[in-house]
Design a protein that fits this description.
Length: about 375
């Protein structure tokens, strides 16, 4: 591939472009690029060409130097880009076209972005993943209500868990979705999963074990939450970050913790190959050999499924970086198989794995 060309994940061509096929053909031949590009009706080829081949940025370069004093809590565009898995170019487009971000400027010309900017971009990403057009997604993100003043997050999350549980255990799908929508409008996906969904699932499982909820209630709640989580997981394979292969071993059907872990890793810039529940070990091994992941995570909420495949796990960890997760994973099995043990809760484990990979990529002394 000639120098200067990059691959394109998707190019949506509408409006007047279709009336100039020769020019479009030349453009695509000369502009094979990496970013996922989506342009609205009325955009021209010249506009798209400027997006894919921007003029050199006149903004002061982002470096690893300390952010200027007096700007604690603010991020430069490079760090914001890494956190969100969105290229700096696309962040600038969203800022210019939709007013999605409102950076401060230092005397030296640096753009500095706030936690509110980050929250709006995350909201836009969620709406895009749900299928909304970019302009609509931006308007929805800009209208997202902030957390009520004077309300402690822990109190909000505790009340939301109770409300979510009441809806799910009463077999009220719509009411449960409204609770989740309201939370996602005010908090990050990570916070909603960490402080509401995962604690509720653990409590639900414990109460089911004590006979306090019925099989029907447990199945209904799990099915509704799994559907919502799968929606949040759309776009698992986008980006250029490290890749994780996630699966539950044979006979393990409780996958929601693993799915939350995958969403957490995705939000830290990883690509996810997700196989789900009750996966034969031969299948996990075959997929690992094909996609060559940076990490294979095998998760089980019970000890039996992992203990029954110890030889297979040993072989897997010999050829691929492998970790065991879930309440069924133990130090003993990890030691025997040579796998790493992820002892943190799913969202904390995702943050830890991403941070450790980032330090390895930065190299010694970073």
């Amino acid at each position: 591939m000639p120098a200067g060309r990059r691959r394109v994940g998707l190019l949506l061509v509408i409006g007047q472009w279709q009336h100039d096929p020769d020019r479009l053909s030349r453009f695509c031949r000369d502009s094979w690029t990496d970013p996922l590009v989506s342009c609205g009706r009325g955009d021209t080829l010249d506009t798209l060409s400027r997006y894919l081949h921007p003029e050199p940025d006149t903004e002061a370069p982002t470096t690893s130097e300390t952010t200027p004093s007096g700007t604690a809590g603010l991020l430069r565009i490079g760090e914001l880009s890494r956190r969100l898995g969105v290229t700096p170019d696309l962040l600038r487009v969203w800022e210019r076209r939709y007013g999605l971000l409102s950076p401060e400027r230092t005397e030296g010309g640096f753009r500095l972005y706030s936690a509110q900017d980050e929250a709006r971009v995350r909201a836009m990403q969620r709406h895009l993943a749900e299928g909304y057009a970019a302009g609509v997604a931006a308007r929805m993100a800009l209208r997202a209500p902030a957390r009520p003043a004077g309300t402690e997050p822990d109190d909000v999350m505790a009340a939301a868990r109770a409300e979510l549980g009441e809806a799910l255990e009463g077999f009220h799908d719509v009411e449960a979705q409204v609770v989740i929508d309201r939370l996602l409008a005010a908090f990050s996906v990570e916070a909603v999963l960490r402080d509401v969904v995962l604690p509720y699932l653990r409590d639900l499982g414990d109460r089911w074990g004590r006979g306090e909820v019925s099989v029907g209630q447990e199945h209904f709640a799990s099915a509704v939450l799994q559907g919502r989580l799968m929606g949040l997981a759309r776009g698992f394979d986008l980006g250029v970050g490290p890749r994780a292969l996630l699966a539950c071993p044979p006979t393990e059907r409780h996958e929601l913790g693993l799915l939350c872990f995958g969403i957490g890793l995705r939000d830290h810039g990883w690509r996810i190959t997700y196989l789900g529940a009750d996966v034969p070990m031969d299948t996990i091994r075959d997929v690992a050999d094909r996609v060559r992941p940076d990490l294979v995570v095998v998760c089980s909420e019970r000890m039996g499924p992992l203990e029954s495949v110890i030889p297979c796990l040993h072989g897997l960890s010999h050829d691929h970086p492998t970790a065991l997760a879930g309440r069924g994973a133990s130090i003993q099995v990890a030691h025997i198989t040579g796998a790493r043990l992820l002892q943190d809760a799913p969202m904390a484990a995702a943050a830890r794995v991403a941070a450790e990979m980032g330090r390895r990529e930065d190299g010694p002394g970073a």
